[in-house]
Amino acid sequence: MKRTGLILALCAGIQVNAQTVSKVTDPVEWVNPLMGTDSKGSLSNGNTYPAIAVPWGMNFWMPQTNTIGNGWAYQYTADKIRGFKQTHQPSPWINDYGQFAIMPVTENLKFNQDDRASWYSHKAEVAKPYYYSVYLADADVTTEITPTERAAQFRFTFPRTDSAFVVVDAFDRGSYIKVIPAENKIIGYTTRNSGGVPENFKNYFVIYFEKPFTVAKTFNGNQLVKDTLEYKAGHVGAVVGFKTGKGEKVNLKVASSFISFEQAELNLQRELGKDGFDITRQKAKDSWNKELSRIQPEGGSVDQTRTFYSCLYRVLLFPRKFYEFDAQNKIMHYSPYNGKVLPGYMFTDNGFWDTFRAVFPFFNMMYPELNSHIMEGLANAYKESGWLPEWASPGHRDCMIGSNSASLIADAYLKGVRGFDINTLYEAILKNTENEGPLTSVGRKGVKYYNELGYIPYDVDINENAARTLEYAYDDFTIYKLAIALKRPQAEIDRFAKRSQNYRNLLDPETKLMRGKNKDGKFQAPFNPFKWGDAFTEGNSWHYTWSVFHDVQGLATLMGGREMFAKMLDSVFTMPPIYDESYYRSVIHEIREMQIGNMGQYAHGNQPIQHMIYLYNYAGQPWKAQYWVRQVMNKLYHAGPDGYCGDEDNGQTSAWYVFSAMGFYPVCPGTDQYVLGAPLFPKLTLTLENGKKFVIDAAGNSATNIYTQNILLNGKPLTKNWIAHEDIQKGGNMRLTMGATPETIRGTKEDAFPYSYSTSKK
């Protein structure tokens, strides 16, 4: 493995042979939080930032390279850091809320975000999930950060100077600051947000310094304020200063709350107490290793192992905990829906249009207790706002389509997750199916057309109408399955079973593709299947045609049968990456990412098509799924700053990789099946929440041996193209023999195919 591999082995506590990783004992050291950070509005390689956090933490921290309000707050190509920001941003497109920044400076009392900015280099930057360090060249200061769920510790190493300062910027759009020198303390709040908050929204913060202040100032905008250490205005902050010796370390403890200053103090004492920086860092590291160690890959390359754990880290960040503990250790939350402080769980910062596909199925498999809490949070969101969230940050945001909360709720309940108010959630689901919401992202836009005609017409001024129809039909399938489990009236069950087939109304027999349809029943004309947007959402017909997760055989039949279905799947990869961007009037980044990916019309950088490769299992050609899954993993992912092929999106694009590395994928949440691909690693062990282990042993797996020859599940032949959720939860092993050539007999008959509504028992 040469010297580089030896260093990695020593640092991460692994055994390495011939550039393969045989054992990972310290998985967090394999994570690169900078994966995906080399992004911009016109081209996303992930659109991520280095989230310095603990799993699902209420607060994240990040180095801020861009100006206040810029969604691309950290860009890998930037030269300067303007501050270290507490962030709650789920994506640059949604932007941030509850944010403020801390920044050390020296020599002159500089507090403006441009004046205080310092040059830095990645050569002097250490980014880990539990720890961040960087040398700020202009200030000659090293900054270190380590997090808890609602607090963090900073450590600044200053030069010898009588002009060492720390700036606390509460940001614009309404803020408050107060310096309390007698307590070495600063308190404040920020109201800056990008939407989705009640009028009384504030993020209250408290900061303790271990060193007394010799200078204490407040500022308002670009001006220092005279004769007061307390100020409230549009954009305020504070600067405190002291003399330092060479190499002197100044420690800060910071915590925040969405409830009150008193609660922020409580959060600080509860999570930091008397712990020093190094103790907090070790606790944060331990929290990551606890979760990351639940999945143990063996025998992969260094790059594969790094990419796997870097993706798993992203899956474990969102949705964030939006609840706090009171003095009696009871759970409560500030409601981002009605502004009240209420008991119970709340989670936020998630777009279900993305994450229903793989993130939440992953939680149901690996973290059912967590998902129970998330479901209870959904019930609270409904009680507090009257609607289920579909894109929350922190409250309802008008973004994306569908009513995919139904998929989350149904999949959780059907896979045995309990401990939440399913009756309230089912009531909320039913409300969605009959009503439009106050925002287009909640309820169902176009619901009257959908319920009466079986589709949303192209010519009634409702954008993305075909995409909405397809997603509503799938969501209705999940409601149908949930209604059966809840023993609802037969008429109700039948209603959703019928609506689940509404996808049929948009399959054009001439092109064998999904196509917008006018109110009079005629298909839209002209029709360009390469046109992005319009009837579809961030994709074209070649991407959305496959959004019939629950009835793939029904879709195949409409296309003319299994052989034609397989040819249509093949065409996605063999066509050139041509596109029509006229609906958007410019080439949006998703189009560009498909174009440069060099996989034809396959646009893995956006979610609608991510399950499509696995559909070869329904066509009797599972070896093609095995081939293309490996191609995507090899070509479109790596653990570097440009390591994704599009928006990472709250763990979804990462969850695809994590599942695919295991060798299967949840094509249809709401069923108990994971559709097979082929494992990435020779061995991978899952430690389930119930304490049992499920081992995936792929003998002979390699860069060339990518095809499954045969499979044994607990010693018995597995002839299906899927594995059941229950089989994994019971523990055991799945042994696969791998080879360099496709095995073209196994999995080719219909009795091996995964669930489809049309051909399976209802």
UniProtKB/TrEMBL annotation:
Limits of the Glycosyl hydrolase family 92 N-terminal domain: 30-257
GO BP field: carbohydrate metabolic process; glycoprotein catabolic process
Gene Ontology molecular function: any one: peptide-N4-(N-acetyl-beta-glucosaminyl)asparagine amidase activity
SUPFAM superfamilies for the chain: Six-hairpin glycosidases
Pfam families referenced in this protein's UniProt entry, alphabetically: Glyco_hydro_92, Glyco_hydro_92N
Residues annotated as signal peptide: 1-18
Domain Glycosyl hydrolase family: 263-739
Quaternary structure, from the entry: Monomer.
Protein name per Swiss-Prot or TrEMBL: Alpha-1,2-mannosidase, putative
